[in-house]
Amino acid sequence: MPVSLKAGSTQFTIPEEEYMYSGHSGCPGCGVAIALRYTLKALGSKIVMVVCASCTGTISGLMPTSCFKIPVVHCAFMAAAATTAGIKQGLKIQGDDETPVVAWAGDGGTFDIGLQGLSAVAERNEDILFICADNEAYMNTGIQRSSATPSGAWTTTSPLGAIKNRPKKNIMEIMIAHEIPYAATATIGYPNDLVRKAAKAKDIRGTKFLHLLTPCPTGWRYPTELTMEVSRIAVESKLFPLYEVENGNYKITQLPRKDIPVSDYLKSQGRFSSLNEAEIVNIQGHVDVNWEKLLAKAKI
Question: What's the chain's Rg over C-alpha atoms?
């Protein structure tokens, strides 16, 4: 069953049903694998999922095996949005206008090589759900820099002694600019929020977009048992706010409970180890400005 709502409350109950088998090919502590498990609980079994070249393509296992209990179509790196829209149109031609079709792509297949196709699908307002599992680099092929890589982060393609000196691309504002009916951020450290948004998106007609932050112990350089904690610190430090935009209306869905500085997040990961105090202060300033902008948009 998909996610349910308790009678007389606003509290979601995460279903016990599993739509992934116990074995998968992800790394220990993989944030993408955790995100898949939660998201599929929200979406249920009666969906079709499209996976482009990404960590998820590896997680699913080598043919003829698969860790998924749902129909999955693998496509080329840049083609997640187009393939998903095509399958949805094909189902409609067969008289099925109800089965949700979901694209699952990494940040490379969303922010970079997949952006043109995603923009075209959003412009047409195709009835699909596009989910970006963002681990902030091309992790599956060796931790190369993407436009989702944050300022100050190390990657294997960073010049010797250098770090990325440009901010992360604001993919949410790009998608919101297409005037799609629903876009939201989520992360595995707040599973109720993630499940609620995925379930909500499934029932909305038109193009829906979920931006999921999925920490990667391999590429981010932290101990595998800290994946959920790193996810929570990203939200509590306001570096990755949790919010949704429905028909142009912004709503913050998780206000930080503590006043945690961004330095706590940065110092939890080896990929930021070369930052000096001045650079950390600069990143904190950038986060503060973005948070104030979000508060204004949400009319808080």
Answer: 18
